[in-house]
Amino acid sequence: MTDYFEVHARDGAARLGELRLETPRTTPALVGDLLQDGGSLWAADRRVPDGDESSLTVLPHRGFPGGTAEPVRESFAVDYPDVSYPSVAVISSASPADEGTDAYAVSDVQSIVGHGAALVEAVVSVREAIPSDTALVFSGVATPRNVALLAYAGVDCFDAARATIKGTQGKYLTTESEYFLEDLDELPCSCPACQSPREEFTRADCAEHNRNALAAELAVVRQRIRDGRLRDYVEGQARQEQWLTAAMRELDAQWTYLEERTPILREADLDAATEDTLRRVEIQRFADRVTSRYRNRFDAPLVLVPCSARKPYSESQSHSQFHRAIQWRAHLVSMTSPIGVVPQELETTYPAQHYDTVVTGRWSADEKGFVARVLRRYLERNAYPRIVAHVPDEGYRDIVERVQDELDLDVTYTVDRGAHPTDDEALANLSDALSGESAYQKREREHNTVRALADYLLGDGAGDDLFDEFRTTSHYPRLQIRDTDSEETQLATMVPQYGTLSFTLEGARRWVESEAPTKRLEIDGFVPQGSVLAPGVVDADDDIRVGDEVVVEGPKAFGIGRAEMFGREMVESTRGVACEIRHVQEK
User: Fold this and answer.
1) For residues 492 and 481, is the Cβ–Cβ distance under 8 A?
2) Helix (H, G, I), strand (E, B), or coil: what is residue 523?
3) Are 371 and 522 in contact (CB under 8 A)?
4) Pseudo-torsion of CA 322, 323, 327, 330, nearest 10°?
5) Residue 388 and residue 374: Cα distance in Å, rounded?
6) Is the peptide bond before 131 cis (omega within 30 degrees of 0)?
7) CA distances from 192 to 197, 199, 200 (A)
8) How much is the pTM?
9) Beta strands 480-482 and 471-473: pairing type?
């Protein structure tokens, strides 16, 4: 825990932080000029430096290269002193530990950068061992090509040593490649170092350019974190080097590490431009919740339809045509890559309302396999009296037929081969297929939407536990949920831009008293105004994620708000906003 580093924004494992020094610096950033090395204890005994708040003091240390045997590390371990200035401990990724410092430099980075699996294993092991509100430093490895991936993995601070060395070797670095100076006919950059004619460009100029390119790339990374879109950038950037692609995929396999740090909602859209998008936490989390928490409550046939470019789907022209043909006589579920399947009640949730994908009319084998697995799990959990597939040939029908064969289902297809779902004949077929079915009422649609959102957000069965009896006012998608016994008592509001529920104090009390899983934040003896800062947190549930609704309780207050940190981070941190308070009442 630290007084000198604070996280202001998060994008998965990447953080936008602040080194709170005499001259503050926003991270991810180059900090080589801020590091004051207290020296290696391998060479000689060192006294503890007289540090100050103008720099990060690296305490006297023993660095262990990769592959150092555990007995050696244990025998020569350093007991770091408790100092009152910004400090850095040097640790090995093989045996990381909380040393009570503000930042941690990893000694064996040279042996892990360049190897995807080794990098991810090292970053995850270190980040899990050190407090959440401390900075992670990688020295001697950052280049314009790899720094975005390193930041995405969770590294906060870098130096320009590697970029400088490569420049003195005559290697010109860009975000996508590395060139020998003699192979460049012109300089593909407009930074100050590259303003001289090509024939006058020296290796010293090359080193300056490399530092400029690295600093510029970090500025891009910081803006991407602010926008909540670093992953979109990394999916393209990692293609520039094979080990970076491998590292991104290895990181995707670290579900626990990434899921804990990934918000449940964002304002930013999700770009589904590559098949690696299928492995994103947001995609996998949505698919998991739809197939393990959501439960269909309509006593009606299922109609499977294709997605639409416009979000939410119900506002698109194609889905308006589907709804006119269905006339609320069936339950609508959209099929899409990379999301999977989206029941109509969840169309506004993140990321179902917030993604954009490349439309070619052709599905890859991976896309078909993923959507088929999700559809199968969905149908295994939710039984329907009939299934109607109103889907075109392009991938959709292949997926439905695959699942139909696997589960031995009877499916009615209403779109002829080669036809489009919005053709007049196809829409007529859809309407005819539902002939004789009764339409369900607006009240049922709205109540099922509220319960489905509660299931999705809070857990399996939460909708029935929390909203057994209630009534709705206003109009979809801004439904207001009210108590049946009191017209004045509002329990929650549906937030259309995120597809979430925003609770009132009365709703929070009902939540606590229900059987629904509750996300609780325990605070000290004060009444929060506007927000709860991390130092005021006593305890927090481990399953709290950024964006979750949380019940805030303490000796003097009861409130409801939205999490700005994940649960463990709230407990570990000594700086930053843990939760934004919406409503609070003094006890």
Assistant:
1) yes
2) strand
3) no
4) 80
5) 17
6) no
7) 12, 16, 14
8) 0.93
9) antiparallel
Burial zone of 82 (CB within 10 Å; 0-12 exposed, 13-18 middle, 19+ buried): exposed
- DSSP for 275-290 reads GGGGGSHHHHHHHHHH
Residue 499 and residue 314: Cα distance in Å, rounded? 14
Phi, psi (rounded to 5 degrees) for 105:
-100, 130
Rounded Cα distance, 341 and 24, in Å? 46
Q: Report DSSP state, residue 394.
A: I
pLDDT by residue, tens only, the chain of 587 residues: 578 999 999 999 999 999 999 999 999 999 999 999 999 999 888 999 999 999 999 999 999 888 889 999 988 999 999 999 999 999 999 999 999 999 999 999 999 999 999 999 999 999 999 999 999 999 999 999 999 999 999 999 999 999 999 999 999 999 999 999 999 999 999 999 999 899 999 999 999 999 999 999 999 999 999 999 999 999 999 998 999 999 999 999 999 999 999 999 988 888 887 788 889 999 999 999 999 999 999 999 999 999 999 999 999 999 999 999 999 999 999 999 889 999 999 999 999 999 888 766 678 899 999 999 999 999 999 999 999 999 998 889 999 999 999 999 999 999 999 999 999 999 999 999 999 999 999 999 999 999 999 999 999 999 999 999 999 999 999 999 999 887 789 999 999 988 899 999 999 999 999 999 999 999 999 999 999 999 999 999 999 999 999 999 999 999 999 999 999 999 999 989 999 999 999 98
β-pair type (103-106, 135-138) = parallel
| CB-based contact 152:13 (threshold 8 Å) | yes
Q: What six digits make up the tokens of 496?
A: 């259309």
Residues for the chain: how many in total?
Answer: 587
- Nearest CA to 498 among 530, 467, 457, 464? 457
DSSP element (H, E) containing 351: none
- Give the separation between CA 117 and CA 125, rounded to whole angstroms: 12
In sequence order, what are the residues at sequence separation of 6 or more whose Cβ sits closer than 8 angstroms to the Cβ of residue 45? Answer: none
- Residue 231 CB-half CA count within 13 A: 30
Q: Terminal CA-to-CA distance of the chain, rounded, Å?
A: 31
For β-strands 520-523 and 500-503, DSSP reports them as unpaired
Q: How far apart are alpha carbons 246 and 576 in whole angstroms?
A: 33
In the numeric block, the tokens 């698919």 are attached to 287
Looking from the CA of 516 toward its CB, the CA atoms found within 13 Å total 32
CB atoms within 10 A of CB 513: 11
Max CA separation in the chain (angstroms): 89
Q: Cα separations (Å) of 6 from 52, 135, 175, 178, 547? A: 18, 9, 28, 34, 19
Q: What is the predicted pLDDT for the residue at 394?
A: 80
Is the N-terminal amide bond of 28 cis, ω within 30° of 0? Answer: yes
E-strand stretches of 121-190:
135-138, 157-158, 171-173, 178-180
DSSP 263-274: -S--SS-EEE-S
Tokens for 246? 């491998």
3-state secondary structure of 509: helix
CA distance 445 to 453: 12
